[in-house]
Amino acid sequence: MSSDDSTPPTSPARSSPNILITGTPGTGKTTAAGMVADAAGLELVTVGDLIKQRNLHDGYDEEFDTYWLNEDKVVDEMEDMMAGGGMCIDFHTCGFFPER
Fold first, then answer.
1. Do 22 and 91 meet the contact criterion of CB atoms below 8 Å apart?
2. Which residues pair with 89 in a beta bridge?
3. pTM metric for this prediction
């Protein structure tokens, strides 16, 4: 930032966009995201798989057969991977992704 703190920080230039596909479970978003990623030459990231693979959760709820999502861990993990663009993200919601 500048010395007067009025200039917002800049993001690195993106070579291509990030596309976020969201929806209720079972609506076909993973299928659609895969098709979009293939057609646009983007890398597909299924956030649910990423949460399990990189331990971005606070434990497992056996009653509901799901992981307790840690939003901060997910955002911290994905921020750098999305900075340059070129990602097609598949998840249930977008509310915790920061606007950048």
1. yes
2. 20, 45
3. 0.77
Q: Nearest 5°: CA angle at 69, between 12 and 51?
A: 65
DSSP assigned state of 3: T
Q: Which residue has the tokens 């992981």?
A: 67
Q: How do the pLDDT tens digits run along the chain, 100 residues long?
A: 445 566 655 666 667 899 999 999 899 999 999 999 999 999 999 999 999 999 999 999 999 998 999 999 999 999 989 989 999 999 988 887 776 5
The first and second tokens of residue 73, run together, are 């861990």
Strand-pair category, 43-46 with 87-91: parallel
Rounded CA separation 62/23 (Å): 23
Q: Which two tokens stand for residue 42?
A: 């983007």
